[in-house]
Amino acid sequence: KAFRRHYLPQFWQRFEGIETENANTHIQSEDELITDRGSVEEALAHGLQELSATVQRHEARVNELAAALSGNGMGFVSDREHPSSQFRTMLSALLVTTAPSTFAGLLQLYFSQRLQDFSHKFNNAAPGEAPQTNE
Q1: CA pair distance 56, 58, nearest whole angstrom
Q2: Are 19 and 40 in contact (CB under 8 A)?
Q3: What is the structure's pLDDT at 27?
Q4: Whole-number Cα distances in Å, 19 to 11, 41, 44, 100, 114
Q5: Helix, strand, coil percentages in the chain from 3-state DSSP, rounded to 5
Q6: Which residue of 4, 61, 81, 121 pairs with 76 in a disulfide if CB–CB is 3.0 to 4.6 A?
């Protein structure tokens, strides 16, 4: 409950105000692409990094609880019954069901930009040469 009440609103708030209008249109200029890419990539990178750290802290607590329970004779028959597995399932459901409607546009913009970057690199590669990537 604490994760849903306290953390998720802060997590989704990170993505408010990011323009997603270009998600359904072609970005006209390279400058516009860089500006939009920066804000989208920055928000996603920071948000996911923070989410990952928070999830790891919560999962560590769940694992401590599971260890205490199994030490008291409460074994888990399968990995699916393990509390950390159930925690990950619950977390996925919470993220999907609490995502703001604008988040889909943000993801669409991000992946459109990544595809556009890849296409640009692929089209500019010499024949028979592999496209250059920064990753």
Answers
A1: 5
A2: no
A3: 44
A4: 17, 12, 13, 14, 17
A5: 75, 0, 25
A6: 81
CA dihedral 79, 82, 83, 85 (to 10 degrees): 0
Cβ atoms of residues 117 and 38 within 8 Å: no
The total number of residues written for the chain in this structure? 135
- Proportion of the chain above pLDDT 70, given as a percent: 69
In which residue are the tokens 């997590």 written?
11
In angstroms, the Cα distances linking 8 to 15, 39, 46 are 12, 20, 14
DSSP state of 21: G
Quick: pLDDT tens for 108-122.
888 888 888 888 887
Asked whether the whole model's pTM tops 0.85, one would answer no
Taking the alpha carbons at both ends of the chain, their separation in whole angstroms is 37
The residue type of 51 is L
Residue type, 33: L
